[in-house]
Design goal:
With 187 residues, the chain is of the alpha/beta class. The chain has helices at residues 21-33, 65-76, 109-118, 138-142, 148-167, 173-180; strands spanning 2-6, 36-37, 45-50, 53-58, 83-89, 97-101, 123-128. 36% of the residues lie in helices and 20% in strands. The relative contact order is 0.18.
């Protein structure tokens, strides 16, 4: 069973923020798969199932994402290498897309939480959101809505990412990486 986790923060005030790009991809996959809601309080998140795929949106707030991922992992006895985490990445330009297995958290609090609880050897789907001019602006930047210009690209970029994730069911990470990695999504 594959567990796809999209990182974000619960609540309407965060819905369109850069930090919630992982939630947007999960919403697209839930719709595409016609996945059914199997959420339980003990999962600390919204969990959806479609055949042999689980789709998770942790509702713990970003800094505690690992708690939700661990609960689902343990309940369904999922191996770490069968977990895919979709997250925003300020070290990539807006609309870039990268795939990697393992690695550091790069200052991302959601990844830091997951790494601290489960370890680092899971697949990461890095969605570039660009970065602010000054490091001190990072928190405000990722918790800010996408710009009007960025919104024009968002739907196609999320669809592209969702398609790449579907390919992970039958192709290797390297195959998906070579076919779907982006420097920037072109409309």
């Amino acid at each position: 069973m594959l567990l796809i986790v999209g990182l974000g923060n619960p609540g309407t005030q965060y819905e369109n923020t850069r930090h919630n790009i992982g939630f947007k991809v999960i919403d697209k996959l839930v719709s595409d798969f016609g996945a059914r809601d199997i959420s339980k309080n003990s999962f600390y998140g919204e969990l959806f199932k479609s055949s042999d795929i689980l789709l998770l949106k942790p509702m713990t707030f970003m800094n505690l994402s690992g708690k939700s991922v661990q609960a689902v992992k343990n309940f369904y006895k999922i191996e770490l290498e069968d977990i895919v985490v979709i997250h925003d990445d300020i070290d990539l330009p807006f609309s870039a897309l990268r795939f990697k297995n393992g690695g550091g958290h790069g200052g991302h609090n959601g990844l830091r939480s997951i790494d601290g609880i489960l370890g680092k050897e899971y697949v990461r789907i890095r969605m570039g959101v660009g970065k602010p001019e000054y490091k001190s602006q990072v928190a405000d930047y990722v918790l800010h809505d996408f710009s009007v210009e960025e919104e024009k690209v968002l739907k196609g970029w999320v669809e592209h990412t969702a398609h790449a994730i579907k390919e992970l069911q039958s192709k290797t990470l390297d195959e998906v990486k070579s076919r779907y990695s982006l420097k920037a999504f072109e409309v």
